[in-house]
Amino acid sequence: MAKLLKLRRGTTSDHNSFTGAEGEVTVDTTKDSLVVHDGSTQGGHPIAKSSDLPNLASYATLSGATFTGNVLIDNAKELRLGEADGSGSNYTALKAQAQSGDITLTLPAAAPTAGQVLKANSSTPTTLEWGSDSGLSLLDEDNFASDSATAAASQQSIKAYGAATYQPLDADLTSLASCQSGAAGAIAALTQAEIEILDDATVTTAELNKLDGFTGDKDDLIYAKDLKATGVTATEFDYLDGVTSNIQTQLNAKGTSNVSLTDDNVWQGAQRGTVTAATHSSGATYDFDLNVTNCFKLTISAGVELGFSNMTAGTAGTIEIVNSGSTVPTWATEVYFAGGTSKAPTITASATTVLAYYCFDSSKVLVEGMSDVKNSA
Questions:
Q1: Domain(s) of CATH 2.10.10.30: residues in the chain
Q2: Three-state DSSP class for 184?
Q3: Where in the chain is the domain with CATH 2.60.120?
Q4: Torsion sign, CA atoms 212, 214, 217, 218
Q5: What is the pLDDT of residue 179?
């Protein structure tokens, strides 16, 4: 009977915590495979069984291979075609994207000729074929002589053709002389002088559009031209819109005829300023805003410092203060009094006080008391 040789053995878990001697061989009873040890690596080096090895004959070698079946490059990976090693390491890749079904593209059976493009077959689009480029070409042809139905004209050729073909607008008006009736006949009857009234014999499309809806007569156009000749601008002419009678008469109806910001004016009616009324019941300060009005009426019921804002030299007016309690207000630093601070007007409790003020400049206001009205507030 042959002799039996047994090697040290253990499970995969046993091997993971075992370091064998150099050259020692053990058996992994979990995998039924040998493990070679080097004296230092825990777990050793497992040796695969032949059943674990792939069919190497089915794999392509690095030097080339011939495939007799379909080749699948899975998971949107790329088919990369690298450039020559001497040129660098760049490549051109083909890659599939997400799609609703399988797509098979069939390449042409022949080589292309010069100028052909690769395109889909008209009846079977997945079959590719070589064909001519059917896109539009570009012609830079100033006279459009070829009258092509497939070539587009360049901007330069269109501009040149228009400049050489279309008549100026004045020539178009002259050609209207052949019109004999209707609105066209009325245009044809225009004399050269009448045409020049439109704008010195130079009439643009925009200017003709301005006549759309015009119901006046020839004299109206003549007057308009005369106004322009005397320097009347379009803006000034627009001011006449809505004038239905003598302008001076209309102005007289609105007020005196000699009103001017730079002259002494005589007012025929009473003049008064708007009184701005306000109530102050809380807060540390209250400013009379001189941009709002010149006359104020302020009712106070709590302690407050009175002052001014937006002061301009020459501004003057009145202030009526209704003191509804026993409040004694103070004055801001921009306020001055004739004779000094001790001469400040008294704001009488539970009464109405009338004050006058005058602005010396943008930082100083003179305030004086006019009277104390001892009415109960």
A1: 9-47
A2: helix
A3: 275-373
A4: negative
A5: 52
- Rounded CA gap, 79 and 240, in Å? 80
Residue in the block written with tokens 């102050």: 280
What residues contact 245, with CB distance under 8 A and at least 6 apart?
A: none
Residue 151, classified by CB atoms within 10 Å of its CB into exposed (0-12), middle (13-18) or buried (19+), is: middle
Which parts of the chain fold into alpha helices (H)? 12-16, 155-165, 169-175, 182-188, 192-199, 205-210, 218-229, 234-238, 247-254
For 330: left if phi > 0, alpha if psi spans -120 to 50, otherwise beta; the answer is: beta
The pair of three-digit structure tokens given for residue 347, joined into one six-digit string: 């704001």
Residue 308's CB is within 10 A of a number of other CB atoms, namely 22
Distance CA 196, CA 203 (A): 9
CATH value of 275-373 in 2.60.40, 2.60.120, 1.10.287, 2.40.10: 2.60.120
What's the mean pLDDT in 152-157? 86
Residue 44 near residue 50, CB atoms below 8 Å? no
Predicted confidence at residue 36, as pLDDT, reads 94
Tokens representing 175 are 């050609």
Task: Report the pLDDT value the prediction gives residue 107, as an integer from 0 to 100.
Answer: 92
23 DSSP assignment: T
Tell me which amino acid residue 347 is: I
Tell me yes or no: is domain 9-47 CATH 2.60.120.10: no
Residues 6+ apart with CB under 8 A from 240: none
